[in-house]
UniProtKB/TrEMBL annotation:
The organism of origin for this protein: Halonatronomonas betaini
PROSITE patterns from the UniProt entry: ABC_TRANSPORTER_1 (PS00211), ABC_TRANSPORTER_2 (PS50893)
GO molecular function, one term: ATP hydrolysis activity
Protein's name according to its UniProt entry: ABC transporter ATP-binding protein
UniProt domain ABC transporter: residue ranges: 9-256
Amino acid sequence: MEKNKDVVMTVEGLTKVFKSGIINPEYTVAAKDVSFDIKRGEIISLIGESGSGKTTVGKLILKLIKISEGKIKYKGKDITEINNKAEVKKYYRRVQGIFQDPFATFNPLYRVDRIFDMIFDSFDLNYKNKSQAIKEALDDVNLNPDRTLGKFPHQLSGGQLQRLLIARALLMDVDILVADELISMLDASTRIGVLNLLVESCKKHGMAVVFITHDLNLGYYVSDKSLIMYKGRLVERGNTKKIYENPIHPYTKMLFKAVPEIGERWDQDVEFIPEQVINDVNEFYNNNEGKGFVEIEEDHSVLFSDKEYK
Ligand SMILES: Nc1ncnc2c1ncn2[C@@H]1O[C@H](COP(=O)(O)OP(=O)(O)OP(=O)(O)O)[C@@H](O)[C@H]1O
Ligand SMILES: [Mg+2]
């Protein structure tokens, strides 16, 4: 996989087991044997129900938690070997995350300009004219500098703050942006706007995005590649169109059957994994015993059996 020069990151057999409690420790396998790669400028949707392990994968990529098993390589280098301060800083210069609640990223006491000052202070950014560069990045995300810079976070909307964070990532020429539930807190109209911006900017700057979402809301419409997670396992992986047109895993089938039309609201109250799906998955694994993860066509792989599925 690494021979492809467009590949910026490879995730191989990634596993995370959380241990909680001391006397009677409980172990949660949050991610198990997850493998995929990330190419330059690629938009990837990481989709799955609540608790399926999506944020865990995002955090592992961002080095926020320790890998239990498997490897993540960034430009060929094992990220667990990136340890000293200078190297870690260099890593975060190119691999960044934006989380669900943009307000948490901003210090309420400072004007929002500070997020730009900070990157210019900490990193050696190659721009002749700093304020011109900021203006252009804001332009890319459809923000009016006069109406945003100089404001305090509480004076801006969640969508505007998220766009500021995208502008920051663009200025830094980030290779990989992990966007965890980026749009879920926005209303439907802003949502489409932010999403489109993200896609356009990515294509323009060659920035890859790992777009984490649990409700499929529009995310997969824009992604080149989809990763479907179910109970910590990647159950289907590949070209979004191929998966959408020919879903094989029972969980994926259920997801796509339930996808709302563009602009339509997802009903959050619907129970996400009906009993039927759990049974279907069981039957599917039993019928395909021993097959494991198989590439069924170019750019489309499916988990046919899982020994440990309960
Ligand atoms: N620090 C932790 N300690 C123990 N268990 C954890 C920890 N973080 C996550 N988990 C468990 O790991 C599993 C996966 O969690 P994760 O946050 O990755 O899910 P998710 O797919 O992002 O869900 P959501 O859509 O609700 O955000 C869950 O069962 C969760 O309870
Ligand atoms: Mg999550």
